[in-house]
Amino acid sequence: MVKRSSAPWTVTDGRAGxxxxxVALASALRQGTHRxxxxxxxxxxxxxxxxxxxxxxxxxxxxxxxxxxxxxxLAIGCGRQAAGALRVLRARGSQVVQILDPRIGSRHWDVVVxxxxxxxxxxxxxxxxGSLNPVxxxxxxxxxxxxxxxxxxxxxxxxxxxx
Length: 163
Fold this sequence. Notes:
By secondary structure, the protein is of the alpha/beta class. It has one domain (9-152). The protein is 31% helix and 17% strand. The chain contains 6 helices and 6 strands, in the order βαβαααβαβββα. The protein has a 6-stranded parallel sheet, with helices on both faces. α5 (80-91) links the parallel β3 and β4 (95-99).
């Protein structure tokens, strides 16, 4: 029997864009503080993710192996490395959400979130225009407070977020 962690996990390869999208979704769900996990996959898991291989619970690094013993109720991952780790967690009973096209069928995850321009479709696939991001009222309020001097500049102002 796998012990359960109630805090949702974000699982990524550590790349800023992948972390940002996973954290944005976890924050939007407002299920408490998420537990971030940066994977350290070894060969051949690093090359073949998201395909499952024998021993894959240990293939994504020591931190993943030790935390997988207490699999979360919900795990949110972004990127192909995360897609492989999420498959391990789903086999242990976690609900899993994969962000970005894992390059194999969507049936291996509970929900897959992809940009509209990707070809992946299915009953559990959600498509987006753009990418997930943390921009909400709280984020904007923080920005106004952190950069209060901008309020003296003439308006209206337009911002372009790139990344």
